[in-house]
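fold-stage: in
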Amino acid sequence: MGRFPLTKTEKIKRFLASIEEVGEHWIWKAARCGRNNEYGVWEGYNKERHTAHKWAYILFVGPVPSGMQVDHECKVKLCVNPKHLRLLTPGLNNAALNKTTCIRNHELSGDNLYLTPDGRRECRTCHRLREAKRREKELTQW
């Protein structure tokens, strides 16, 4: 196989080869990312890596405007069917998830909730635990 860049048609064929149709969902079967490997990941043009659902949107619908995120309207995180995807602001995307707890079941409210400048909701308890683990790792490396 040569090292020439793939055309858009070739890229779409490779993308589609990584999908399994399950009812109306297009389930991503290739590489995954996220804390629990809940999202598909795809390397696009010029070695850009994005979530597979974002690439599905780019390939079949069009570019994602700055400040917007691609949301799974169907709530199936591995689904890349462009008919199930929509654009939302980060704040609306987080609200659409209706998350009241983080991945470790800490409450996402009050003093434990941090809103990032781009509108994401983060758990302060998990952040403190990650930082403590990082500091501990740094100390053991010496």
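fold-stage: in (second)
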Amino acid sequence: MFPSSIALRESTWMYPIVESVHVLSLTFFVGLSVLWDLCLLAALAVMFTSGFLLFTSEALKCWENGAFWMKMEFLVAALLFTFTARRWYTQREGADPDARLASVVAVVSLALWTGVGIGGRGIGFY
């Protein structure tokens, strides 16, 4: 047994404080995940509608544009990752949080969505 665990168990105030911090952080994390998913669904609808309109205004230019295809590849990868791996990680029950896995999920997600943005920005310059 660790001395800190004994002190925590025997303290009048430390256990309730640590437990409260734990429950609040869990609630915050789950709440943000739900909000993120709901926002993502609405944002996806707006993004697809506006993107389709932009595409139709210059369909031939986009079709022949390497940056457009890079964006589409990143978009497909980002959506697949978001609705599979990221969703699996954020919605798994009873699993202990793994900081390394959380970091990998976050970095991959950020990299994929950054690729979408860079590809989109590159369309005008290609």
